[in-house]
Amino acid sequence: MNTIKSYIKDNKERFLNELIELLKIPSVSADSAYKKEVLLTADFVLESLKKAGCDNVEICETPGYPIIYGEKIIDKNLPTILVYGHYDVQPADPIELWTSPPFEPVIKKTAIHPEGAIFARGACDDKGQMYMHVKAMEYMTSSGNLPCNVKFMIEGEEEVGSESLAWFVPRNKEKLANDVILISDTGMIANDIPSITTGLRGLSYVEVEVTGPNRDLHSGLYGGAVANPINILTKMIASLTDEDNHITIPGFYDNVEELSTEERAEMAKAPFSLENYKKALDIDEVYGEKGYSTNERNAIRPTLDVNGIWGGYTGEGAKTVIASKAFAKISMRLVPNQDWKDITQLFKNHFESIAPKSVTVVVRPHHGGQGYVTPTDNIAYQAASKAYETSFGKTPIPQRSGGSIPIVSLFEKELKSKTILMGFGLDSDAIHSPNEHFGVWNYLKGIETIPYFYKYFTELSK
Ligand code: BES
Ligand code: MN
Ligand code: MN
After folding, report:
1. Nearest Cα to 34, choosing from 21, 25, 47?
2. Which of 127, 185, 408 to mutate to test the pocket of ligand 1 (most atoms within 8 A of CB)?
3. Closest CA to 410 of 152, 245, 169
């Protein structure tokens, strides 16, 4: 019987080349200019699932971008794993900061990836990680090593809030019925320190608009006498956190899950070098909520960040103007027990209440979602842990992540199943940033580890 290791060795070049072809298609879901390419990517995924041995592979139409479904049901009495991933990617801009074009993938060596990494938008998030599952499936079906039933559900709107998937899931509960959901769309600590993501933060994303005078004004004739919406907006934003970097929105912390001293001590055991962290980002000091460590700040504590701010004149040279309007996009990362809709409402009430009478404020909620915590005391986690032990030769560390995959909590609500997050990316892979990449080693290690999860999960289910 062909082992996974030798199968990877024999097919490595092809695995890389296929992923490179997938990465060439710019499936940017946020920008409607790429609509054709997003749909082409859906077709690519469809074909790849067919080739990997899935049955009933189909394009499921939705009000937005399609969802690709495929399955292999070998025995109704065996467990079923539902694999989720996304084929859409973030916009590539600022494009001038890429060292090679974002949709012309190249393999380059880096300090952390001496065996090379594929540089392209979506390499790690999530095309590369999603495609590991397709290749692992190919191995299992072609070598007679598929131990259980599999369903694939690959969507094209994750980077814009998974609206169509939230529409699709409740309408297809039977079709999607499963014993566990498996996702590779997160990261791990380091290549020699495997970890399993046990938590995701929730998200509330809003846009605010502050309007002062009804038109842009001469800043000499009117300056000092009327409210400048940009000045006002920046003051309002500054007041949302205090000197300890606590968020000042009344009620914001009411439901925040506080970790026990023991849990925090357990977290602090995860290997982490603050020096290397600062060095990698070229910063002299970290910054954040008083009383918490860096890893706590970015995983178990809620945050508020401005993602974009604009208004007035930003072109070349100077223009003396008081703008009529100022805008900002603001995201809040949430932790377990904080309800994203409640938080959005709290933000809206508070932001409107702190606006001076000289301006009007509109708060427009965008998408959001609940956080998620994966239990570690179940067979799914144990199977994942054993899978890493087999392929990495080390027990993985459970670790909460600061990122969000809001649809995971909806899966739990609608499908009543838990999700296992087996991510193989690294924080330094620059997802959402220029020069995103995914280690060749990580890609192949993912393909190697996944079939072991299937094996152990099936065994432990007996
Ligand atoms: N794959 C990421 C989320 C992620 C990355 C979680 C690394 C943990 C570690 C996902 O594609 C993503 O970017 N999610 C968005 C939220 C979404 C609603 C746009 C995020 O976290 O900003
Ligand atoms: Mn992702
Ligand atoms: Mn993403």
Report:
1. 25
2. 185
3. 169
Nearest CA to ligand 1 atom 7: 186
Local confidence band at 2 (pLDDT 50, 70, 90 cut-offs): low
pTM: 0.94
Contact 70, 54 (CB under 8 A): yes
Query: Which residues have C-beta under 5 Å from ligand 2, the single-atom ion?
Result: 125-126, 185
**Location of structure tokens 């009327």:** 226
34 strand-pairing partners: none
* Ligand located closest to 197 CA: 1
DSSP letters for 147-164: -SEEEEEEES-GGGT-HH
pLDDT tens across 331-363, in order? 999 998 999 999 999 999 999 999 999 999 999
Q: Is the CB of 396 under 6 A from ligand 1?
A: no
304 touches 330 (CB < 8 A): yes
* CATH no. of 203-256+302-369: 3.30.70.360
Tell whether ligand 1 has an atom less than 6 A from the beta carbon of residue 202.
Answer: no
Contact 388, 196 (CB under 8 A): yes
Residue 86 alpha carbon to ligand 2 centre in Å: 7
Residue 199 alpha carbon to ligand 1 centre in Å: 12
For residues 186 and 125, the answer to whether their CB atoms sit within 8 Å is no
Domain regions of the chain by residue span: 4-200+371-460, 203-256+302-369
Q: Which atom of ligand 1 is nearest to the CA of 331?
A: 22
Give the containing element (helix H, strand E) for 411.
helix 407-415
Burial grade of 255 (CB within 10 A; 0-12, 13-18, 19 or more): middle
Q: Separation of 422 CA from ligand 1 center, angstroms?
A: 14
Q: Are 244 and 289 in contact (CB under 8 A)?
A: yes
CATH architecture under which domain 4-200+371-460 falls:
3-Layer(aba) Sandwich (3.40)
Spatial CB neighbours of 152, under 8 Å, sequence gap ≥ 6 = 49, 54, 68, 69, 70, 71, 82, 83, 133, 134, 137
pLDDT category of residue 1 using cuts at 50, 70 and 90? very low
Nearest ligand (C-alpha, residue 200): 1
Q: Look at residue 209 and tell me whether its pLDDT is greater than 60.
A: yes
